[in-house]
Design a protein that fits this description.
Layout (H helix, E strand, L loop, with lengths): L10 E5 L15 H6 L1 H7 L3 E4 L27 H13 L3 E6 L9 H9 L11 E2 L22 E3 L5 E3 L14 H16 L4 E4 L31 H14 L11 E4 L20 E2 L3 H4 L4 H14 L7 E2 L8 H4 L10 H8 L4 H17 L4 E4 L20 H5 L43 H5 L5 H14 L9 E2 L8 E6 L3 E6 L5 E2 L5 E5 L6 E2 L3 E6 L1
Parallel strand pairs: 1-2, 1-11, 2-3, 3-7, 7-8, 8-9, 10-11
Antiparallel strand pairs: 4-6, 5-6, 12-13, 13-14, 14-18, 15-17, 16-18
Helix pairs in contact: 5-6, 11-14
The structure holds alpha-D-glucopyranose.
The site of alpha-D-glucopyranose has 9 residues, from loops.
Length: about 550
């Protein structure tokens, strides 16, 4: 199918900069480290990299607490490093997508400090959501909203008012009904696009606007359902203005049409619909491969849902990211992702690791065979498992502290990458990494996997190579192939001449008719063993 914009069938690689590669030996990954590994990414065969926040930040939430939207955290490099990164990536035909964090800033942001200093009723406070409390002396929060990280969504300041933070107390929510806030972010968007960013990943794109009356949450409101603070109708008009900014950049030459991909979590897929109306954000993630159980019928229904909604070009596919447990561990559980899953994985430790790895390999072939665009989170191509034994005192995710340790949080998928079999930090850093790497991490390293045709990395490299070459892959549609009496089979055809087949059950499933096995996640001779997928030519 003819693609008009690069992002419609792009494979984007998500870099968590603090955990990717460290150049200066302080145990924290940085932009020069990433620059030094661009050949690795080009060799993998991705079209773009998305960088999670690399801006100055007190790190209350891994950098999603931004204290300066137009600068590079000195621990991660300089603006010259960012510019060089864009240039060096472009030399390899790779684009750079930056993370825009508009729902909240850091409590260290100068405008929030000014709001604290200026006091109740001031212009400065109007940029945030400050209110008086309830009850005698205003000692109770203004309403019953809870932070997604646990605990109340309100913190009281010295003069007695409270401010809203849907996440950590170090992340005050902006007031999106304030014209200055809108103007500030329009400047930030232009700032990064002017520097050569090919697009934005929009953090918490289903948040931002809050009902100005701040009504209590009615009991039992489903998570991520439309509410007084999620999926507000005002978002549509805002995103149309952002789209106009994106479209004002010339699309004719590299990096091509600018994109923005919204992070929108939803209760039901239909909640995504308003975001996908014409003229809004070019893309929003669909999290169906994360939310679905490892079961053929569930996955087929999830895929059909996305295809009938908008397709994978506007709603890219993703197996994991820095917020959810690694697929190689998650898929062991036969259940879709829920926020309490990390705790169950910690209890399970590495038991069942082989099943998880087998399924993650099959899932990778599914991801890359589906119509549209796909995102890969760093380390997925190495089959990294969730690290479940991080000591409590080494955990950094605010979810851990805010839930009094009940939720282990997201550190287990953020452990720095292993580049080498051995040596300090397994090639990540000369110093002990900011999150400890487990023993045996070197077995997953790029060095250990590179020469091994059976490795995860070789599977990803080969899949990405075939995806670039095969005319059926990328954007387009699919046709399901039914395997009567084989409920564990997940098979579809893509034209011209491509068939995907997977076995998600416990007994072998015969391969559908084909000419040649192009690639398989495990042995595929006549039949597919359990939890195995294959790409076939028809
Ligand atoms: C998004 C980010 C997550 C962060 C949260 C608050 O969900 O992906 O990492 O904690 O927003 O910014």
């Amino acid at each position: 199918m003819a693609v008009t914009k690069w992002w419609e069938d792009a494979v984007v690689y998500q870099v968590y900069p603090r955990s990717f590669a460290d150049s200066d030996g302080d145990g924290v990954g940085d932009l020069p480290g990433l620059r030094s590994r661009l050949d690795y990414l080009a060799g993998l065969g991705v079209d773009a990299v998305w960088l999670t926040p690399f801006y100055p930040s007190p790190l209350a939430d891994g950098g999603y607490d931004v204290s300066d939207y137009r600068a590079v955290d000195p621990r991660l490099g300089t603006m010259a490093d960012f510019d060089a990164l864009v240039k060096e990536a472009a030399a390899r035909r790779m684009r750079v997508i930056v993370d825009l964090v508009p729902n909240h800033c850091s409590s260290a942001h100068p405008l929030f400090r000014a709001a604290l200093a200026a006091g109740p009723g001031s212009r400065e406070r109007a940029r945030f959501i400050f209110r008086d409390g309830r009850g005698p002396g205003g000692e109770l929060p203004p309403n019953n909203w809870a932070s997604s990280f646990g605990g109340p969504a309100w913190t009281r300041v010295a003069d007695g008012q409270w401010y809203l933070h849907l996440f950590d107390a170090g992340q005050p929510d902006w007031n999106w009904h304030d014209a200055e806030v809108r103007a500030l972010f329009e400047d930030v968007i232009r700032f990064w696009l002017d520097r050569g960013a090919a697009g934005l990943r929009v953090d918490v794109a289903w948040g931002l606007f809050k009902d100005p009356d701040l009504p209590d949450d009615p009991g039992g409101i489903p998570r991520d359902a439309p509410s007084a603070y999620h999926h507000r109708p005002e978002l549509r008009e805002l995103y149309r203005t952002w789209r106009a900014i994106l479209d004002s950049y010339p699309a004719g030459e590299f990096p091509g049409a600018r994109t923005a991909v919204g992070e929108v979590w939803y209760d039901a897929l239909g909640t995504l619909r308003p975001y996908l109306l014409p003229g809004g954000l070019p893309q929003v993630f669909n999290f169906e491969l994360i939310l679905s159980r490892w079961q053929a019928g569930a996955l087929r229904a999830a895929i059909d849902g996305v295809l009938s909604l908008a397709g994978g070009s506007r709603a890219p596919w993703v197996l994991g990211n820095h917020d959810v447990p690694r697929p190689a561990s998650r898929y062991r559980l036969d259940e879709g992702f829920t926020p309490d899953m990390a705790a169950r994985l910690v209890a399970l430790g590495q038991r069942g690791a082989e099943v998880g790895a087998r399924r993650a390999r099959a899932a990778a072939l599914l991801l890359l065979a589906l119509p549209g665009s796909a995102y890969i989170y760093q380390g997925e191509e190495l089959g990294l498992p969730e690290v479940t034994d991080i000591p409590d005192d080494a955990r950094r995710d605010p979810q851990f502290a805010r839930s009094a340790g009940r939720r282990p949080g997201r550190d287990g998928c953020r452990v720095p990458l292993p580049w080498a079999r051995g040596g300090p930090g397994f090639g990540f850093s000369a110093a002990p990494p900011w999150l400890p790497q487990p023993d045996g991490w070197g077995d997953y390293s790029v060095e250990a996997q590179s020469g091994d045709p059976g490795s995860f990395l070789s599977l990803y490299r080969e899949a990405l190579r075939l995806r670039r070459e095969h005319p059926a892959l990328g954007a387009g549609g699919l046709r399901w192939i039914d395997q009567p009496g084989r409920p564990a089979a997940l098979c579809f055809a893509r034209e011209p001449g491509f068939v995907f087949a997977a076995n998600l059950g416990g007994a072998p499933v015969p391969l559908p008719p084909h000419r040649q096995v192009l690639l398989a996640s495990g042995p595929a001779r006549g039949a597919l063993p359990p939890d195995t997928a294959a790409w076939l030519s028809a």
